[in-house]
């Protein structure tokens, strides 16, 4: 099966296509770097490009696209944990237990000025 010339030619074409796409995405990375975007948007664009390039490398060059379903399950679980870890700091920043809300403090100051 692997020694069939048609299969080998198809695999070579696939590798060359992915290599060309990686080259294109590297050019896009350089071009986006020259635009000087706002930091949050630049990070988002950089992560989208990196995820795209990484998924192409993992699926084609690491042959994960030919693996069984349990590999996909573990990859999805990894993505879920990664997203959880990225969102965890946002949850701690918005934690206001034991602190006075800025809105409450402003209302108290306004009420104190109104009494005078």
What do you see in this structure?
The protein has 116 residues and is an all-alpha fold. The chain has 2 domains: 1-62; 66-95. The protein is 80% helix and 0% strand. It is built from 4 helices and no strands. Helix 1 (5-35) runs antiparallel to helix 2 (39-61). The longest helix is centred in the first third of the chain and has 31 residues, at 5-35. The radius of gyration is 25 Å and the shape is elongated. The N and C termini lie far apart (90 Å).
Number of helices: 4
Instruction: State the end-to-end distance.
Output: 90 Å
Low-confidence stretches: none
Number of strands: 0
Helicity level: over 70%
Overall mean pLDDT score?
83
Number of domains: 2
Order of helices and strands: HHHH
**Quick one: biggest sheet?**
none
Which word captures the global form?
A: elongated
What class, by secondary structure content?
Answer: mainly alpha
- Beta content comes to under 5%
Radius of gyration: 25 Å
Task: Give the structure's gist in a few sentences.
By secondary structure, this protein is mainly alpha-helical.
């Amino acid at each position: 099966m692997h020694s069939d010339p048609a299969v080998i030619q198809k695999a070579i074409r696939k590798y060359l296509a992915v290599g060309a796409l990686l080259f294109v995405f590297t050019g896009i990375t350089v071009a986006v770097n020259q635009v000087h975007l706002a930091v949050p948007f630049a990070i988002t664009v950089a992560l989208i490009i990196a995820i795209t390039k990484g998924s192409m490398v993992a699926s084609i060059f690491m042959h994960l696209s030919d693996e069984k379903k349990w590999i996909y399950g573990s990859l999805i679980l990894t993505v879920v944990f990664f997203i959880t870890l990225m969102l965890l700091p946002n949850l701690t920043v918005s934690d206001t237990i034991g602190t006075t809300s800025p809105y409450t403090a402003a209302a108290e100051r306004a009420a104190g000025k109104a009494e005078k």
